[in-house]
Specification:
The complex is a heterodimer of chains A (612) and B (239).
Chain A lengths: L1 H31 L6 H18 L4 H30 L4 H23 L15 E4 L2 E4 H23 L1 H11 L1 H6 L4 H22 L1 H4 L5 H16 L4 H21 L4 H15 L12 H4 L12 H20 L2 H24 L9 H18 L3 H23 L4 H21 L1 H4 L17 H23 L2 H11 L1 H6 L4 H27 L9 H14 L6 H16 L5 H15 L3 H14 L2
Antiparallel strand pairs in A: 1-2
Chain B lengths: L2 H4 L1 E12 L2 E12 L3 E5 L6 H9 L6 E6 L2 E2 L5 H6 L2 E4 L11 H8 L12 H7 L1 H5 L10 H13 L5 E5 L7 H16 L3 E6 L2 H7 L2 E6 L2 E7 L5 H7 L3
Helix pairs in contact in B: 4-7
Classes of the chains: A mainly alpha (612), B alpha/beta (239).
């Protein structure tokens, strides 16, 4: 009995940090309408900064808590800097670009933290006066857990008072409901946004700081937390702070008791909980159904046209070049070209989804899923390469059907968040279930069949599969199914009202995209000879998104151009230490400077030339 | 500054506004003198709402000048326009449905303006007794008429010298429209200038001084409302 009670209390104390981070995220989303992916990074910064401050300040309980609070305030100020110098420039840009810029910040904070605080995991200091444990019916519970259990409801009440009993709170709630109207009533949104971002960032920093004595600080905290916080916000209902608390408690309990039932992957249980909640209440436990204003605010897209004669000619020249390339270049270039082709296929499948208005932030789950399906078949069943490459896309297609069933119920940012959460869960299963998947060590020696083991042969094999796949996806885009997808993107309501089953089309598109990304993953693993969980991780998903954005979303050639440019760039930059910092800077720079991407800019300048 | 230009509250000249590539307003011209209540008459899609939103700064006009109390306000964000004393009552009321009546007032509150008796919740409850009874109720629970009163009251909390009202009589029961007319006349007697957009000619006749007929994004006809030519009205506004 005591054991279960302690387990329950541990779950409650785990919920504290989750709640602090999630309610900050929710608050910022409610008012600014942006999903700050760097929110998890602020949580991580909170932990590192608190650790450094507590180590620097004198001993004692007073200075311990001062350090925690100061850390939260410093993180709040970092948030203000981000809001004032970056986000403010982007408020009128499409949501996707803002998300992207914040992911650039995630990468930068990653490398800066590694540089400032080191790569080693840090063990947090104990809270003075709370080092001991208390005995609950024979089981010990750390005293600090009690402190954590108390902190979350205190913050909940504090936030409630702030939002309901102060002028600032009333303005925040008004802006959450109708920004434009509150501006017309004389409320300065700029100032309000900055203060909200400050408070939200403070809460994330506080979350990181208070969990320090329990969980310490490490470089994986940011992405793990952002995925968990998303799940909580989606389960609790976007914008609802009591919902965030309830959802944190549920997830905390699941983690706490889940370890007893299913130790391989507690995140998998989180997924189940989210799936159940979203099936019953698509807008979360306390969420309210929102007007479809964001969907309508999408920028009018350019009309996609089938290739003109000149573009076909250009494509043909490219094909011939690809065909004769091995005569002129060495093995190294062939390997790079193979990689570019595979990534181009993945980007194209992602682009295909985007033409249906589905911007997924978890495409790496499909790519990595394909790679792991093939690798697992070879590793456990000694399947030959040809069969493994055949089955990988089918397995991922099935995975996409399962994930898609949930995701197509949502749209816009909610959809993006859900795909990201699912991808993180897939990653965690692969990462945690080491007996089956090799865990962090990956699966090695996955080599192609003998006939394809020459780099040149494998190059041609890849090219045939990838170019075939890309052309097939192109073909889909210009079938009635493709038109329907673009109609779904432009107006869900109108599509519904002319008798098209929107969800079914999107679901099918999701599965198709999964199959092609899975195919690329299946081939990829044989080109590398190994696979690691990184192929499924969040940064990988962003690589693909970045390729599409870099190429530009307005032209069909964009994903291919973007993949080539990015893979080449990555190959050059990844040799440096702290290359993530550089990539992060490039992300932000490109989003701010070239919102139309490479192919988009070319299209702008030379588009007329290629027309018939 | 000539004496008569001081009496001009709002002046709009050569206003051109676009939504994307589509031009909505073509060289719009209009004027409201201090203490006047003027109206834009026109069919759906004529450009009335866009004119009002352009004046407020909710939509950015591409060219033209908007002068309020002798000061150019084109390009200013809405909150600055509002702070200068120009209040806005939107077409679809847009009350904050999850905020109580008193909280809705709080959002609209601005510092008192010189020479005007500041509006307080108590003064507004005298003007709109129904709202006083339900001051702690959420805006979303009010009836259509009460919401229309609330949106006007909320704008008054900003102590405006001039108010822009976008189709205030739309969708209201006749008895409520009558109350609304009384409210507007009462505000006018306190010296508040107003610019309305309307489709209801009878309502406009009871409260307005001058009328502008808006058709396909242009001002087509301007006259005192009592002299409004039936011909022009029928040509451009009647359904």
């Amino acid at each position: 009995m005591g054991f279960y009670l302690v387990q329950f209390l541990t779950g409650l104390s785990d919920a504290s940090a989750l709640f602090l981070v999630a309610c900050g995220l929710s608050l910022i989303f409610g008012v600014l309408r942006i999903v700050n992916l760097a929110h998890g990074s602020f949580y991580m910064l909170g932990a590192y900064i608190a650790f450094s401050l507590i180590a620097y300040l004198p001993q004692g309980a007073f200075f311990f808590w001062t350090g925690i609070l100061l850390a939260a305030l410093i993180v709040g100020l970092v948030g203000v800097i981000l809001e004032v110098f970056l986000l403010r420039r982007l408020y009128s840009a499409p949501e996707l670009f803002i998300l992207f810029a914040t992911f650039g910040v995630v990468l930068m904070v990653q490398d800066l933290s590694r540089w400032l605080f080191g790569a080693e995991d840090i063990l947090g200091q104990m809270a003075p006066g709370l080092e001991g444990s208390i005995d609950i019916m024979g089981t010990l519970l750390p005293q600090y857990d009690i402190a954590l259990i108390v902190i979350a409801p205190l913050i909940l009440v504090g936030l409630w008072l702030l939002l309901n009993r102060t002028r600032w709170g009333i303005l925040v709630r008004a802006a959450t409901e109708d920004r434009e109207m509150s501006s017309a009533l004389g409320v300065n949104q700029t100032w309000l946004f900055t203060t909200v971002f400050f408070l939200g960032s403070c809460l994330a920093g506080l979350g990181g700081a208070v969990q320090l004595p329990k969980g310490g600080a490490n470089l994986l905290m940011d992405l793990n937390m952002i995925a968990a916080a998303f799940v909580i916000v989606v389960v609790g209902g976007m914008g609802s702070i009591p919902g965030a608390y309830l959802a944190s408690v549920i997830i905390g309990q699941l983690n706490s008791f889940g370890v007893l039932i299913f130790p391989q992957s507690t995140l998998f249980l989180m997924f189940l909980a989210m799936a159940v909640v979203l099936t019953i209440r698509p807008h979360g436990l306390f969420g309210e159904i929102e007007a479809e204003e964001h969907a309508a605010a999408q920028t009018a897209g350019t009309v996609l046209k089938p290739a003109s004669k000149k573009v076909r000619l250009l494509g043909l020249i490219l094909l011939i070049l690809i065909f004769v390339l091995p005569v002129f270049v060495g093995q190294f270039t062939l390997v790079l070209m193979t990689e570019i082709a595979l990534f181009a296929l993945v980007s194209m499948s992602l682009y295909f989804l985007m033409t249906g208005g589905m911007v997924t932030f978890g495409h790496a789950a499909f790519f990595g899923g394909g790679a792991y399906s093939a690798a697992l078949l070879v590793h456990h069943l000694q399947t030959p390469m040809e069969l493994a490459i055949f089955f990988a896309p089918l397995a991922v297609g099935l995975l996409a059907l399962i994930i898609g069933w949930f995701c197509v119920r949502l749209s816009g940012v909610y959809f993006a968040i859900l795909t990201l959460a699912f991808a993180q869960i897939c990653w965690s299963v692969v990462f945690q279930w080491a007996e089956f998947t090799g865990g962090d060590d990956g699966l090695l020696t996955i080599w192609p069949s003998k006939w394809a083991s020459e780099k040149i042969v494998f190059y041609y094999l890849t090219m045939v599969l990838c170019i075939g796949g890309i052309l097939l996806l192109r073909f889909f885009i210009f079938t009635p199914f493709g038109y329907t997808m673009r109609a779904c993107r432009d107006s869900a309501l109108r599509v519904d009202s002319i008798g098209i089953n929107l969800r079914r089309h999107q679901w099918l598109a999701f599965a198709i995209a999964g199959v092609f990304a899975g195919l690329a993953g299946g081939v990829y693993v044989f080109s590398k000879g190994s696979v690691f969980p990184d192929e499924m991780a969040i940064p990988r998903s962003f690589d693909f998104l970045f390729m599409v954005l870099l190429g530009g979303v307005e032209t069909l050639f964009g994903p291919v151009a973007g993949s080539a440019a990015y893979t080449w760039l990555h190959d050059k930059i990844a040799r440096f230490d702290f290359w993530q910092l550089a990539i992060g800077c490039i992300f932000i720079f490109l989003v701010v400077a070239f919102p139309r991407g490479i192919a988009g800019s070319v299209h702008n300048r030379f588009g007329k030339f290629f027309e018939d | 500054m000539p004496a008569d230009s001081q009496d001009i509250m709002l002046k709009v000249e050569g206003l051109n506004t676009f939504y994307g590539k589509a031009q909505i307003l073509f060289d719009m011209v209009l004027e409201v003198k201090r203490g006047e209540v003027n109206v834009l008459l026109g069919r759906n899609g004529a450009g009335k709402t866009t004119t009002l939103k352009s004046i407020m700064g909710i939509v950015a006009p591409k060219s033209g000048t908007i002068t309020f109390k002798g000061k150019a306000i084109n390009g200013l964000p809405p909150f600055k326009t509002c702070a200068l004393g120009l209040g806005y009552v939107p077409e679809d009321r847009r009350i904050f449905s999850r905020l109580s009546i008193l909280e809705n007032f709080e959002v609209g509150k601005q510092t008192p303006r010189e020479g005007l008796e500041p509006w307080t919740p108590e003064r507004l409850f005298e003007l709109f007794p129904n709202l006083g009874e339900r001051r702690h109720h959420a805006g979303g629970t009010l009836s259509g008429g009460e919401q229309q009163m609330l949106t006007i009251a909320r704008t008054l909390m900003g102590n405006p010298e001039m108010i822009i009202l976008d189709e205030p009589s739309e969708g209201l029961a006749p008895v409520i429209v009558e109350q609304l007319a009384q409210t507007i006349q009462r505000l006018k007697s306190e010296g508040v200038s107003m610019l309305l957009a309307e489709q209801n000619l009878n309502f406009a006749r009871t409260v307005c001084d001058r009328a502008y007929i808006v058709y396909l994004g242009r001002t087509h006809h301007e006259s005192a409302i009592d002299n409004l030519s039936q011909q022009a009205y029928e040509k451009y506004c009647a359904l």
